[in-house]
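We were asked to recover a plausible sequence for a given structure. The inputs and outputs are reproduced exactly as logged, with field labels preserved.

PROBLEM: sequence recovery
POSITIONS: 225
GIVEN STRUCTURE:
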């Protein structure tokens, strides 16, 4: 059975939001992956890595699973009417509508989070209410056919959750073994609940101006809808 998986690409996305789930989901039996962007040109990420789309919005085939990654570039992507229209089009017919990190807000602007439980990166968690979602503090949240992952690395757990849903737990376990996904972080600092006060305060200060910019962008995107 073919499983058509489409990732939305946009400039300045967080590459691990995309590449983590891609690595897992591309190993599903029958997986056919499309990388869709507004134009077939190299897409810059938040690192030195650039991405090569396989399709633009016009020639991308219908998908079974739509995945929207996050990143600082979500501010501009949420303003782009062609990008929003593509997400609406694909999401309305997809079997699974999904996001990682701040990609949730693209789903929100497109109308898919209204009244739904969802998650995103911890720094933006409360802002999910602005797009009609019920924020849930978890690395992966499912509400019907909507799957949302938390920040960045949560996209890997998110992808294994989807893999088990689509192909069964045994297939997901085999993919996990093949990827040797056996996390053992050197520090217990990966969430606000676990991080020591100095690390948490440093990250809150670092994110504060960024979150303020994001909220302006989100308000502008909502105003256009």
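RECOVERED SEQUENCE:
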């Amino acid at each position: 059975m073919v499983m058509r998986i489409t990732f939305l690409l946009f400039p300045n996305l967080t590459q691990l939001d995309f590449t983590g789930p891609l690595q897992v989901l591309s190993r599903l039996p029958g997986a056919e992956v499309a990388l869709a962007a507004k134009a077939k040109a190299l897409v810059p990420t938040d690192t030195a890595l650039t991405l090569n789309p396989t399709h633009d919005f016009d020639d991308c085939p219908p998908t079974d699973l739509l995945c929207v990654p996050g990143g600082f570039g979500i501010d501009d992507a949420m303003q782009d009417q062609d990008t929003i229209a593509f997400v609406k089009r694909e999401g309305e017919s997809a079997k699974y509508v999904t996001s990682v990190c701040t990609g949730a807000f693209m789903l929100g602007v497109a109308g898919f989070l209204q009244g739904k439980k969802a998650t995103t990166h911890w720094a933006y968690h409360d802002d999910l209410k602005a797009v009609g979602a019920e924020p849930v503090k978890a690395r992966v949240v499912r509400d019907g056919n909507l799957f949302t992952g938390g920040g960045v690395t949560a996209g890997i757990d998110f992808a294994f959750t989807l893999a088990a849903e689509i192909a069964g737990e045994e297939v997901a376990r085999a993919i996990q073994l093949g990827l040797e996904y056996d996390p053992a972080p050197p520090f217990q600092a990966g969430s606000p609940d676990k991080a020591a006060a100095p690390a948490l305060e440093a990250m809150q200060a670092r994110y504060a101006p960024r979150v303020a910019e994001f909220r302006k962008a989100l308000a502008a995107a909502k105003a256009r809808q």
